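S.,

As promised, the flavin-adenine dinucleotide run. Input:
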Amino acid sequence: MTARLMVFTRDLRVHDNPALAAAAQGGEVVPLFVLDETIISRHEQNATRLSFLLGSLRDLDASLRDRGGQLVIRRGPWVKTVLETAAQAGAGQIHLMNDVSGYAMTRLARLREQAAGARREVITHPGVMTAGPAGLSPAGGGPYQVFTPYYRRWLEVPRRDLAPAPRTIRVPGSTDAGSIPRLADLTGARRAAAAPEPGETAGRKRLRDWSRQHLAGYDDNHDDLAADKTSRLSPYLHMGCLSPLTVVHEVTGMPGADPFIRQIAWRDFFAQLLAAKPEAAHRDYRSRDGAGPGRRWHHDPDGLAAWQEGKTGYPVVDAAMRQLAVEGFMHNRARMIVASFLTKDMRIDWREGAAHFMARLADADVASNQLNWQWVAGTGTDTQRHRIFNPVRQSQRFDPDGRYIRRYVPELDGVPASEIHEPPAAARTARKYPQPILDHAQAARAWRSLG
Ligand code: FAD
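Predicted complex:
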């Protein structure tokens, strides 16, 4: 019997990996990961994400070795390298997971076309989303454009069973495994100092520990900026160290699970939108109403730099941007605050903000990032497109005693809670903290006047 090729992409796990389970069934398998030159150069600035990828590959290799196999690593143009490896292994079948970005779908189509010419079969499997896309289209067809009806349907559709982790992996003896590169081989950039621990093993532990300790309080605490009690599972979900279905299975029936599972549905929601409209990664999902001159984005490189560096003079915005720099992570509420500030107060194009996030986040994910940015910017699927967050009120509400601000903006350490959300001018000067770069009340009036 000839070996099958298992091509890992964003599914760096042995548990609930339908592609791996199918490829490993009953014979030899070559478990391959190709460091795709295009993706590496696209993420070259994001050393946090690349480092998470490399660590996750090391963990996957260890899990495959525990089962008698090993991970085969290649680097190069993805389609060509996959086909070369298939030819070397004499593999008639190539198994991999379906994905939702325009790049992944185009890459897969090219693989299918070229594999057919070489008489190799490409077999794709689910795994990126919890549910669907089968059975998850509204009556008129296309993707769901609004979350609530999507979520109602999402809760109803039957889910596949979890795929069992293979007990043994038999790799043909002649296979050259190659080696996992070091971070410095891929980028000169530096990863965030407090980046998350990579890999399936760490992700499964985090899921178990967090759900036991914090799931029950999720609904009450998930918006509390300083408490930091959300799951922080996003990088594991993005890289597929955990399948979203595993997460849902693990928590179902536990106290407090429903609001948390709803967030996993948001992830699926954006993934199905991107799959249906891949150009939404860089174009407005919906054109903005009355797109006249007043609606044009501002070109403001100094303002953009102040936002990126956490020097806007709005403490909660600055704390969030500095959290991103230090941890490669930002709290969801903070992501909404800073995105609203950039697009609606500063009127800077959402693409600028999304690109900065993509270059910093460990969980940088085209579907969740670009479509959340669009949601906040009013070009996406938010039904209240003219909403604008007041950064001072958000700060008072979600960081009442200023602990989140003090954690990331040490200049403001001694400022009392009553003043920390909007420190007086003299306190700013004394602490070398910037004066506000704009007046929110005025910016909000200007934004709303655009109608
Ligand atoms: P939890 O609150 O514990 O939620 C559990 C999981 O649900 C998350 O890990 C995530 O997979 C999913 N989830 C939660 N909220 C959302 C949401 N609004 N949209 C989609 N999925 C969600 N998420 C990313 O994974 N990658 C991104 O690049 C990304 N960029 C974002 C950009 C902006 C402007 C905004 C507003 C949100 C973005 N999000 C992104 C969504 C969300 O902020 C993160 O998923 C969440 O903060 C991750 O923290 P957590 O794992 O502790 O979340």
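The radius of gyration is 23 Å. Residues 222, 230-234, 237-238, 263-264, 266-267, 270, 332, 335-336, 339, 357, 361, 363-365, 368-369, 372-373, 376 surround flavin-adenine dinucleotide (CB under 6 Å).

- D.
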